[in-house]
């Protein structure tokens, strides 16, 4: 493989009503093996995927939200969350779980993976990619 | 650098089309396919959003999908251009990336 390509995974669906959110995360984890420059975007109902304290005991499906915290180990460290999408849904950044990674270029310092961006910044991020995969 | 956006959901009751319009950039193209073609109907509640972006974004509908749904060319927003499957392929080739708004 020559130069790494920029991959963006766009997440616009809430976590448990459809299978999209889980499938996206599965593809991200598989794709992480190919050492590309990976970013994740969360907008519209996709921001609900990252809320803290999810508990699926009574609906009989796997709670996959803790898996987001493993992404750092696969060098997936850029999770962009759209500010307007949060606000439209009555959410604040503090309603999202903390997702950290260890920065190998900075003495393994722990840093947050989630970055809150505006809608226009999200548009810039989208237009800066080689490949956009939507879920 | 430009993006081809495709939308395959009706804009009524699904946020995909409006979110696409809010994120696309001048020079991009939006192709409405499957149930997305309802977004091209003139005089609808979302038509003004299309007309507002038509200056800097190109809009297309997949002709077979409008015909399948009984949407005659005269019912569509004027700035929206019908294309066939060959036109779809051309659009993909002309842009740097394709983003599907599922």
UniProtKB/TrEMBL annotation, chain A:
Annotated Pfam families: DsrE (PF02635)
Stored Gene3D superfamilies: DsrEFH-like
Domain of life: Bacteria
Gene name in the database record: tusC
InterPro entries: DsrEFH-like (IPR027396), Sulphur_relay_DsrE/F-like (IPR003787), Sulphur_relay_TusC/DsrF (IPR017462)
Family of the protein in this entry: Belongs to the DsrF/TusC family.
Protein name as catalogued: Sulfurtransferase complex subunit TusC
